[in-house]
Amino acid sequence: MVRGLTARQRQLLAIVKTHLRESGGLPPLRALGVQLGGVTPAAIHLQLAVLAQKGYLRWPRGRPRAVELLQPVERVRAVEALRVPIVGTIAAGEPIDAFETPDGSVLVELAQLRAGDRTPGQPGHLYALRVRGHSMVDACIQDGDVVIVRRQASAEDGDTVVALLNGEQATLKRFYRESGRVRLRAANPYYPDLVTQEVQIQGKVIGVVRFC
User: Fold this and answer.
1) Domain limits of the chain?
2) Which pTM does this prediction carry?
């Protein structure tokens, strides 16, 4: 996609490129207007001036058909990314037996991680899980998403965590401490909370990747 241009400007730029490649110059502005579906020469003149202003072409004064194509200069943001292993599936609903089944990896940009978690530590501290179920939809975690998890054994109230129940079953829920117990709260009113006195935190969710 050509950045900073309207659909009409992108279409005109493509036509200009074709003419320059095939004949080395442009036809009359009226002919360009016909190719764009009946646009007036004045409108073509204006759009060519915009393309020149944005650095896509050079248009010498007094020579409207002597156009030279340029490569626009764009500042490209450096992207920092990590490759995170997908180690299995996590239930967003009723807990399921916890076991690791390696399933490739996912490339995650640091900008995709939650604010405050964009310096996640060593790459080995992260892992990913495929989500199965709908109990966390109000936290923007849907069935089929991949959650990025930072390994840690503790959590703060409100954190979305991977929780291990009775040392056997794992679930994805929000974590809350209560007097003498822990509440694992769903982010979907149709799913009940889980209240337990024995839970092991396997990690905190710091990002979500959606494939669509």
Assistant:
1) 7-69, 81-209
2) 0.57
Q: Which residue has the higher pLDDT, 105 or 31?
A: 31
Catalytic residues, by residue number, are 135, 173
Tell me how far apart the alpha carbons of residues 159 and 154 are, in angstroms, rounded to a whole number: 10
Query: Looking at domain 7-69, which of 1.10.10.10, 3.20.20.120, 2.30.42.10, 1.10.443.10 is its CATH number?
Result: 1.10.10.10
> Closest Cα to residue 145, out of 73, 210, 54?
210
**Structure tokens that stand for 56 in this block:** 């896509």
Query: What percent of the chain has a predicted confidence (pLDDT) above 70?
Result: 76
pLDDT for residue 73: 44
Q: What is the pLDDT of residues 76-115, one digit of tens each?
A: 344 567 778 888 888 886 655 555 555 677 777 776 666 5
Selected residue with higher pLDDT from 73 and 30: 30
* CATH code reported for the domain at 81-209: 2.10.109.10
